[in-house]
Amino acid sequence: MSNNPRSNTSKKLKHHRNQDSDDVDGNPEVWVTLDKSFKQVQSVLDRNRALIQQVNENHQSKIPDNMVRNVALIQELNGNISKVVSLYSDMSSNFSSAFHQQHSNGHTGDD
Questions:
Q1: Helix boundaries (H) for the chain
Q2: Which pLDDT band, with edges at 50, 70 and 90, does 25 fall under?
Q3: pLDDT exceeds cutoff 60 at 12
Q4: Chain center to CA of 10
Q5: pLDDT band, residue 3 (cuts 50/70/90)
Q6: What is the mean pLDDT of residues 34-63?
Q7: How far is CA 96 from CA 1, 6, 62, 90, 104, in A?
Q8: Are 41 and 84 within 8 A, CB to CB?
Q9: pTM
Q10: Do residues 68 and 42 make contact, with C-beta atoms less than 8 angstroms apart?
Q11: What is the 3-state secondary structure (H, E, C) of 73-88?
Q12: Do residues 81 and 6 lie in contact, with contact meaning Cβ atoms separated by under 8 Å?
């Protein structure tokens, strides 16, 4: 079994996609949008991992210039965290809207 978070997320998404597909199958754009959003989130998280590694290296070096650089790196991290929150919020809203739109159109998966 893989310990790769991306692999686990992908498996969970596929499981939920199969499990709940009757609810939103009429709108495949929902899955395309979710997939794109998850990839954007993963890209930001990968960047954050690299930033954290750099911050740690700079801190361990105890070189004053590196410590000063950490200020900008940490500011970028904070901005990226806000970006991830925003992406997840948008995903939730988009999925919820699509789900409710599907049900309001009379598609309940019993077709």
A1: 5-19, 21-24, 29-61, 64-104
A2: low
A3: no
A4: 11
A5: low
A6: 97
A7: 32, 23, 48, 10, 12
A8: yes
A9: 0.68
A10: no
A11: HHHHHHHHHHHHHHHH
A12: no
